[in-house]
Design brief:
Layout (H helix, E strand, L loop, with lengths): L1 H5 L16 E3 L5 E3 L18 H18 L21
Antiparallel strand pairs: 1-2
């Protein structure tokens, strides 16, 4: 998200407490959560029908995200999650 934010795209921000971005919620089944700020706006699914203007804005946003991520180096992202190392693939 920092990469997208640095390119001027609207993204939620991760909220930190005591230098940590994740929190353990005490409950009968503990849960690890990350809290993000709220972004103003409407949900696309609530827009019916999808106008050509809306679809153009969505396409422009997708293009902006693609350009912003061209220089993103994902090495180390997700390390140890069992996904990025292919350990969960057949």
């Amino acid at each position: 998200m920092c990469q997208l934010h640095s390119q001027g795209l609207p993204v939620p921000e991760v909220l930190y407490r005591d230098g940590c971005s994740t929190y353990t919620l005490p409950s009968p089944v503990p849960a690890l959560v990350r809290i993000l700020t709220y972004l103003e706006g409407d949900l696309i699914k609530n827009e019916a029908p999808k106008s050509p203007a809306l679809l153009r804005r969505i396409g422009a946003l997708c293009g902006s995200v693609a350009v912003a991520l061209e220089s993103f180096d994902a090495k180390g992202v997700g390390a140890g999650d069992g996904l990025s190392d292919g350990s969960l693939t057949g």
